[in-house]
Specification:
- The strands form 5 sheets. Strands 5-6-7-9-8 form a 5-stranded antiparallel sheet, covered by helices on one side.
- Helix 11 packs antiparallel against helix 12.
- The protein is elongated.
- The protein has helices at about 40-60, 75-80, 85-105, 120-130, 160-165, 205-215, 230-245, 275-280, 285-295, 305-325, 340-345, 350-370, 375-390, 395-400, 410-425, 430-445; strands spanning about 5, 10-15, 25-30, 60-65, 135-140, 140-145, 180-185, 195, 200-205, 220-225, 250-255, 260, 265, 300-305, 445-450, 455-460.
- About 45% of the residues lie in helices and about 15% in strands.
- The chain contains 16 helices and 16 strands.
- The chain is of the alpha/beta class.
- The longest helix is centred in the N-terminal third of the chain and has 20 residues, at about 40-60.
Length: about 450
RNA sequence: GGCUCGGUGGCAGAGUGGUUAUGCAGCGGAUUGCAAAUCCGUCAACGCCGGUUCGAUUCCGACCCGAGCCUCCA
């Protein structure tokens, strides 16, 4: 199934055509590690993880790099406030980021380059820019000269004139043009810094990505991803730096995810509605968060709310309920993705909502199927779930495990004992006692399902 | 002000120039000791005004409303 991706630069979907089909490259802007990641940060993580999984079905080798920005003024401020070195802050939050994203079933990226490990390549890139008259040093800074690039603004679709018209920020005196951006800024002796041809400096924000992409992935990468807000200035400036320094095509496909709203409002610190992944994980399992994030197309805004999470949890439970019903069934065949609706949906610019609708169809088919059809249907549902990064755990763990409920309810043994007692009561037609036991279990957060094969149970929050 | 992107049934959310996804909720039914789960059926939508067309929710234009970026930001 041919893969189509929406390219921000072209503003339309294009057939994906990697430079080297034997080694596909993707770079996604990762976190600046100075605090806990919030749920908005989780969206690109989940979206590009899903793309990573999808790419691996098309190509034998996919190199996925996600950087860690470990030098930045925000990190410096946090370090100063806590009286520690920046690498302490950066190390702590990079680790927490890895833990949080793992909870979202995001696979680790192939590479995780750190800015401070790539100062050499950043200096080399800058020297190339200066040599080619695209950058200049001024008052301890090194700046990119936006007028030196004829088609600066091509990615975001704006011109230098437009930007001047909209300028709302006072322009620093050392800039030749208001749109010039910083490659390096001066660092005093007590600030983190590196010796360079321009004195003691630290890198500006955009430089690391250009340098690390070149260093670790090569001159031209296939996919560069991130949040929509990065289109300008971050990615525009990366593009300018790389093109002007090296002259090669930089990125084949630019991909950007839309933002999350929180209960209909923009998420912002001033509104106090920033939810960290970590906080949400105390109330919902990571798979619920992931499923919620995939329930809308990645280029559409998604309103993040309790109702969304509850529905996500309910939907996953119904899928796991179906999977429990075929738990004992052996998978006896390979799934061919070609021709599968969920696969076609994902190949069409990662249409996850449409793919999810195909999961519902498969689940219904399993629920209706005769025994002989079940193994193949089960295999297809699991394959679909695997591409989306969901439905891979033991159904009983989902339905009955501790994570299924934050009620400090009954343990599994107690539940089983009560169910046994109820079965006996029912056998004696003592329905009063049977219902009494059901009520007791309900109070303990347990839902019973009587079926021909016996009584099944699950925790209420699943 | 400039540049982008949207407005779909009660809610979430796809998609399409004609046969009107999917899920939740609702309603009716099957099943069930009761319930749950499941299955079947069903109600219901394309911001507004024009244009193109045999026919537009889908294409074009205007308008209204909303969002993002232009400043750190997923």
């Amino acid at each position: 199934m041919a893969l189509q991706l929406y390219n921000t630069r072209a503003r339309r979907k294009e057939a994906f055509d990697p430079v080297d089909p034997d080694c596909v490259t993707m770079y996604v802007c990762g976190p600046t590690v100075y605090n806990l990641a919030h749920i908005g940060n989780a969206r690109p993580v989940v979206v590009f993880d899903t793309l990573f999984r999808l790419l691996q079905t098309h190509y034998d080798k996919v190199v996925y790099a996600r950087n860690i920005t470990d030098i930045d003024d925000k990190i410096m401020r946090a370090a100063q406030e806590q009286g520690v070195a920046i690498d302490v802050i950066a190390g702590e939050f990079a680790q927490k980021y890895r833990e949080d994203t793992a909870q979202l079933n995001a696979l680790p990226p192939t590479l995780e380059p750190h800015a401070t490990d790539n100062i050499g390549p950043m200096i080399a890139l800058t020297e190339s820019l200066i040599e080619r008259n695209h950058a200049y040093a001024a008052e301890g800074h090194v700046l990119f000269d936006v007028t030196s690039m004829k088609d600066y603004g091509q990615l975001s679709g704006r011109s230098l004139d437009d930007m001047l018209a909209g300028a709302r920020v006072e322009v620093a005196g050392y800039k030749r043009h208001p749109g010039d951006f910083v490659l390096w800024k001066p660092s005093s002796a007590d600030e983190p810094g590196w010796e360079s041809p321009w004195g003691r400096v630290r890198p500006g924000w955009h430089l690391e990505c250009s340098a690390m992409i070149r260093e670790h992935l090569g001159p031209t990468i296939d996919i560069h991803g991130g949040g929509r807000d990065l289109i300008f200035p971050h990615h525009e400036n990366e593009l300018a730096q790389s093109c002007c320094a090296f002259g090669d095509e930089f990125v084949r496909v630019w991909m950007h995810n839309a933002f999350l709203d929180m209960d209909g409002e923009k998420m912002s610190k001033s509104l106090g509605n920033v939810a960290t992944i970590r906080e949400l994980l105390t109330r919902y399992r990571g798979e619920v968060l992931r499923f919620a994030l995939l329930s809308a197309h990645y280029r559409s805004p998604l309103n993040f709310s309790e109702a969304l999470l509850e529905q996500a949890e309910q939907t996953l439970t119904s899928f796991y309920n179906t999977l429990r019903s075929v738990q004992g069934i052996e998978l006896d065949c390979e799934v061919s993705l070609e021709g599968e609706g969920f696969y076609a949906a994902l190949c069409d610019d990662l249409n996850t909502p449409l793919a999810i609708s195909e999961l519902h169809v498969l689940a219904r088919d399993i629920n209706k199927a005769s025994g002989s059809d079940k193994p193949a249907l089960k295999a297809r549902l699991l394959a679909a779930g695997n591409l989306l990064g969901i439905l891979q755990q033991d159904p009983l763990e989902w339905l009955q495990g501790d994570g299924a409920s934050d009620l400090q309810g009954l343990d599994a043994e107690a539940v089983e004992a009560l169910i046994a007692e109820r079965v006996a009561a029912k056998a004696n037609r003592d329905y009063a006692r049977a219902d009494e036991i059901r009520d007791e279990l309900t109070a303990g957060g347990i839902i019973l399902e009587d079926s021909a094969g016996g009584t099944l149970w699950r925790r209420i929050n699943s």
